[in-house]
Amino acid sequence: MPSMNSKRYRHNNIMDIDRRSLIVNLYDINALKFGSFQLKSGELSKYYLDIRVIVSYPKILKQVCTLVSTTILKDDADSKNQVRLCGVPYTALPIATIVSIDTNLPMLIRRKEQKTYGTKKLIDGEYSCGDDVIVIEDVITSGASILETVTDLEKSNLNVSNVIVLVDRQQGGMQRLSERGLKIKSLFNITEIVTILKEAGKISDEVYQSVLDYVISNQIQPVKECEKPLRTKLEFKERARLLETSKIAQKIFNVSLEKKSNLCVAVDVDTADKLLDIAEKVAPHICILKTHIDAINGVTDATINTLQHLAKKYNFLIMEDRKMADIGNTVKLQYKKLVQWADLVTVHSVSGGMMLKGIHEVIKENADLLDSRGVFIVAELSCNGNLISEQYIKETVKIAEEYKDIVAGLVCQSYDVISSPSLLQLTPGVNIKNSNDNLGQQYQSPSDIILTKGADIAVVGRGIYQDSNPAEAAKVYKESLWNTYLERVSNS
C-alpha cells in the first residue's frame, strides 16, 4: 500500500473535473433519461439512470472515476489501516477497477453468487481480517444492494469504512445506510442533476418539476424492525426468561446481570502458574474465563481445583476452548475428561449433530451437572482463507436449535447469524489499544463488537493478560463492554 505522502501526491496530480459538464455529457449519452420508466422494484419513475452505458465512452468513464478517486484520496488521507475497494456488482465493477488503478488501492470483487466449487469464496482478492473497505455504487434508492455487499464483506471479517455512490435518488437510501452506522457520500443527487440540466437547456421546467415532485412523493420508508434481529434489541433479563433458553444460557445471562459484565477473558498463557495468577486477578470482572488447558504446561488436578474454587468464589463460568470436531463417539470420550470441571466447551459442527448427541449423553450420565453444562458451537472463523461457507453456517444454526437444551450459543462474527434470542453470540477479537498484531490478528473496539457485529459476550485475550495490570485492564474492558451493551438495548 502506498504511503500517505504518496497518496497525497497522487491526489494533487489528479485533474479537476467540471461537474456541470460531466452531467451534461451523461445526459448526451443517454445515461440520464426522462419520461416514464419501470424500476426493478416495480414502481414507475419519472427518470432513469443508466450509468452502465459509460463503459462505452472511455473519456466520460475516466471523468467519473476521477471524481471518485479524488473523493477517496481526500477522505482517506489520514487512514492508518489498509484500505481496499469493492464495487457493487455489476455496474460499479469497471468504476472500482479504474479507481483502483488511479489510487493504487487494492480491489476486491464480491460475487453475486457464491462459488460451489474450488475455494467457494464469496469475496475474491487478497485481504486480511479487519481491513477497511470502501464500497462503490452507481445509484442509491433504498440502499438494499449496497447493504447486501456490506453484509457479505462483514461476514468475511472486513470492515466497511465508507460508501461512495455516484448519484443519490434522494428517496431515503442515504439516511437508511447512515442509520446502519455507515459513512456514505454521494457525488451528485438528483436535484442537483436536474437543476444543472434545466440551466443548460437540456430539460424543460415541466420535466424539472415532475422529477422534484416524484422524489417528494416516493420516499422509501425506513426499515427499523428488520435491520437487526430481535436478539440484539432485548435485554439479557428478558432473554433469560424465555422458555426455550437452555439452563446453561440462562446461567450465563444471570451471571452477566449480577456482575454487570459481558466480558470473557481468554487466558492463553503457557504455564499453570500464569493461568491461576491471571484468573485470580481478572475474576471479579468476568462472566466467563476461556482456557486452552491442553496448551498449558504443568496443569495438575490441583490447578483445576483452584480454578473451580475461583469460579465459585467470584461467580464466573469456565469455558475450555477445545473446539472438538470428531465423530460422536470420539467426542463423547473426549468430553468425559472435561465435563467435571468445564462449564462450557467449544465445538465445531463439521461432523454434524451426532457429536452433540454424544456430549448430551455424557451430561445426562452426570445428573448433578444436568443444568450447568453446555457448549458454544463455532459458526464462523475470523481468519482469512477459512473454508466455512454460507451453507455451513446455516446448517450450524440448525444444529444449535436442534440441541438447544445444551447449546448456549454460537461463536460468530456477524450480527445476523443468530436470530433466536435464546442463543448467545460470543465474538473474539477485542483490543482497545491495538488494531492488530504481527501475525495478522485484527482487533476491534467494544463498539465494533457489540453494536456492529452484534456480540452478546466479547472475548478479550492479550489486551488483558499481557497488560502490566491485568486486574485494572479487565475492569476497564468490563465497564466499556457493558456500557456498550446498555447503549445497544436502550437504542432499540
From TrEMBL:
<dbReference type="InterPro" id="IPR029057">
    <property type="entry name" value="PRTase-like"/>
</dbReference>
<feature type="domain" description="Orotidine 5'-phosphate decarboxylase">
    <location>
        <begin position="262"/>
        <end position="477"/>
    </location>
</feature>
<keyword id="KW-0511">Multifunctional enzyme</keyword>
<keyword id="KW-0665">Pyrimidine biosynthesis</keyword>
<feature type="binding site">
    <location>
        <position position="290"/>
    </location>
    <ligand>
        <name>substrate</name>
    </ligand>
</feature>
<dbReference type="InterPro" id="IPR023031">
    <property type="entry name" value="OPRT"/>
</dbReference>
<keyword id="KW-0808">Transferase</keyword>
<comment type="pathway">
    <text>Pyrimidine metabolism; UMP biosynthesis via de novo pathway; UMP from orotate: step 2/2.</text>
</comment>
<dbReference type="GO" id="GO:0004588">
    <property type="term" value="F:orotate phosphoribosyltransferase activity"/>
</dbReference>
<feature type="active site" description="For OMPdecase activity">
    <location>
        <position position="321"/>
    </location>
</feature>
<feature type="binding site">
    <location>
        <position position="382"/>
    </location>
    <ligand>
        <name>substrate</name>
    </ligand>
</feature>
<comment type="pathway">
    <text>Pyrimidine metabolism; UMP biosynthesis via de novo pathway; UMP from orotate: step 1/2.</text>
</comment>
<dbReference type="GO" id="GO:0004590">
    <property type="term" value="F:orotidine-5'-phosphate decarboxylase activity"/>
</dbReference>
<feature type="binding site">
    <location>
        <position position="462"/>
    </location>
    <ligand>
        <name>substrate</name>
    </ligand>
</feature>
<dbReference type="InterPro" id="IPR004467">
    <property type="entry name" value="Or_phspho_trans_dom"/>
</dbReference>
<feature type="active site" description="For OMPdecase activity">
    <location>
        <position position="326"/>
    </location>
</feature>
<dbReference type="InterPro" id="IPR018089">
    <property type="entry name" value="OMPdecase_AS"/>
</dbReference>
<comment type="similarity">
    <text>In the C-terminal section; belongs to the OMP decarboxylase family.</text>
</comment>
<keyword id="KW-0328">Glycosyltransferase</keyword>
<feature type="binding site">
    <location>
        <position position="461"/>
    </location>
    <ligand>
        <name>substrate</name>
    </ligand>
</feature>
<dbReference type="InterPro" id="IPR000836">
    <property type="entry name" value="PRTase_dom"/>
</dbReference>
<dbReference type="InterPro" id="IPR013785">
    <property type="entry name" value="Aldolase_TIM"/>
</dbReference>
<dbReference type="GO" id="GO:0006207">
    <property type="term" value="P:'de novo' pyrimidine nucleobase biosynthetic process"/>
</dbReference>
<dbReference type="InterPro" id="IPR001754">
    <property type="entry name" value="OMPdeCOase_dom"/>
</dbReference>
<dbReference type="GO" id="GO:0044205">
    <property type="term" value="P:'de novo' UMP biosynthetic process"/>
</dbReference>
<keyword id="KW-0456">Lyase</keyword>
<feature type="active site" description="For OMPdecase activity">
    <location>
        <position position="323"/>
    </location>
</feature>
<keyword id="KW-0210">Decarboxylase</keyword>
<protein>
    <recommendedName>
        <fullName>Uridine 5'-monophosphate synthase</fullName>
        <ecNumber>2.4.2.10</ecNumber>
        <ecNumber>4.1.1.23</ecNumber>
    </recommendedName>
</protein>
<feature type="binding site">
    <location>
        <position position="441"/>
    </location>
    <ligand>
        <name>substrate</name>
    </ligand>
</feature>
<feature type="binding site">
    <location>
        <position position="268"/>
    </location>
    <ligand>
        <name>substrate</name>
    </ligand>
</feature>
<dbReference type="InterPro" id="IPR014732">
    <property type="entry name" value="OMPdecase"/>
</dbReference>
<comment type="similarity">
    <text>In the N-terminal section; belongs to the purine/pyrimidine phosphoribosyltransferase family.</text>
</comment>
<dbReference type="InterPro" id="IPR011060">
    <property type="entry name" value="RibuloseP-bd_barrel"/>
</dbReference>
<dbReference type="Pfam" id="PF00215">
    <property type="entry name" value="OMPdecase"/>
</dbReference>
